[in-house]
Amino acid sequence: MAWVYLFVAGLLEIVWAFSMKASDGFSRPVPSIITIVAMIASFALLAWAMRTLPLGTAYMVWTGIGAAGAFIAGVVFLGENVTPTRLIAAALVLSGLALMKLADG
């Protein structure tokens, strides 16, 4: 169950990062509220996952899902640039996630 909590926590990290951008510096109420609620839920699920999973693994997977997901959301929904360097960086993040999962069995 810890991996499910961690995965959902990572997805919520994408939500709060995206809604934080949409909040325009917390000047827009609805995206600001979504940001705060998603942050709290994401941290709570991360904490529950850390009851079982090692700190380094849980934190790396959580930030990796959030970083890769925010990159994808930025490209798909906000029209951010896709360059070879950015794609390589995203691939490295995902490779690190896969290796961390393999290392823990």
UniProtKB/TrEMBL annotation:
A cellular-component GO term for this protein: plasma membrane
Membrane topology qualifier: Multi-pass membrane protein
Protein species of origin: Camelimonas lactis
InterPro entries per UniProt: EmrE-like, Small_drug/metabolite_transptr, Small_multidrug_res
Protein's recorded name: Guanidinium exporter
Compartment(s) where it occurs, according to its Swiss-Prot or TrEMBL record: Cell membrane
NCBIfam families given in the database record: PRK11431.1
Keywords linked to the UniProt accession: Cell membrane, Membrane, Transmembrane, Transmembrane helix, Transport
Similarity annotation: Belongs to the drug/metabolite transporter (DMT) superfamily. Small multidrug resistance (SMR) (TC 2.A.7.1) family. Gdx/SugE subfamily.
Single annotated GO MF: transmembrane transporter activity
TM segment ranges: 33-50, 57-79, 85-103
GO biological-process terms attached to the record: xenobiotic detoxification by transmembrane export across the plasma membrane
